[in-house]
Amino acid sequence: VTHSIPACIGSMVINSKQLDNESPVSVFAVNKCYVTVQDGTFFDGSGFAALVREGYKVRSDVNITLEFRTTAVHGVLLGVSSAKVDAIGLEIVNGKVLFHVNNGAGRITATYEPRGTKSLCDGKWHKLQANKSKHRISLIIDGNLVQTDNPYIQSTSADTNNPIYVGGYPADVKQNCLTSKSSFHGCLRNLVLTKGQQAELFDFSRAFDLRGVFPHSCPGAEH
Q1: Exposure winner among 10, 44, 191, 207, fewest CB in 10 A?
Q2: Class of domain 36-219
Q3: Terminal CA-CA length for the chain
Q4: pTM of the model
């Protein structure tokens, strides 16, 4: 077995001596155990998860669904870019959700702004669906649809070839469809990218790079 166990371990005794887990000599990818826990992946606001090392090709159509929970009003949700301008990006900026797409001719954005006193950064779970179909893009948050006009109707394919970065991205990586550099602080779950009939559920524990991200469990309440 070469991978770690997604679990909480406590009160470990070796040769009648209790180990002190409060002050270890070194720590790698170990987080607190929470009194109340929920399914999902916890992002501590310092890093990101990197998926699909060989690069994800968005091309003409993609449908992204995920659920998020946060109390922060800024944070990167997801970005897939290319060395050129082609890219897609999902982010929370000032409490709004933005879905950006650039098929090569220019960036277009669908923006969801909560109405009245409602907030997306209330520490409760919210469902997000972002859809790109050729030149059309739409965003559905908790069942509320936002669409945007795209003047570049001839340009239909986002020719991306970089990994999918979730919750943030490394400082040396260019993201052409993200305006924020803030890493996401909160929990994500059920990330699915669908192309045609092919739906792929992404398991964060299989990411090729994880920094400040703890798969399998979220604290029951923000702390």
Answers
A1: 10
A2: mainly beta
A3: 33
A4: 0.87
